[in-house]
Design goal:
Layout: H1 2-18, E1 25-33, E2 45-51, H2 60-66, H3 77-80, E3 85-91, H4 93-127
Antiparallel strand pairs: 1-2, 1-3
């Protein structure tokens, strides 16, 4: 019962902190080769994420300008960008904050139940001796 009370306090504090959060998070996620691919020396892929960008600007050309790591390929965008795959992603953190507490509550309650059963079985074993 003590762990349930602790969980309840944590959830309440979490919700109070969540009220001030934004309604939606969005980002542009580009999976591109390493900048050295332009020279033909490497084939590893790297994920570049840019936040606070409108969906219509989620294109390699804009990402290259915004990400400091990619400034070396600004003049070679035509060679670099065809190998990139950019997607605009958005999610609602409020939905996540509403779904996770019940799931965590069920998991913690199940854990407590199993622990109580194990403790009961342990004592029953010694009482029968």
């Amino acid at each position: 019962m003590q762990s349930f009370t602790t969980l309840l306090v944590i959830v309440l504090v979490y919700y109070v902190g969540a009220v001030s959060g934004s309604d939606e998070e969005s980002r542009c996620k580009c999976v591109c080769p390493s900048p050295t691919i332009v020279n033909g020396t490497e084939t590893n892929k790297t994920v570049y994420k840019v936040t606070r960008i409108p969906s219509e600007k989620c294109k390699c050309e804009y990402v290259v300008e915004l990400v400091a790591e990619l400034h070396s390929v600004i003049d070679k965008v035509n060679e670099f960008c065809p190998r990139c795959e950019c997607k605009f992603e958005s999610r609602n953190p409020t939905t996540i904050k509403v779904k996770w507490p019940p799931v965590l509550t069920v998991c913690i309650r199940a854990y407590d139940y199993v622990q109580q059963k194990a403790l009961y079985a342990y004592f029953c074993y010694f009482i029968n001796f």
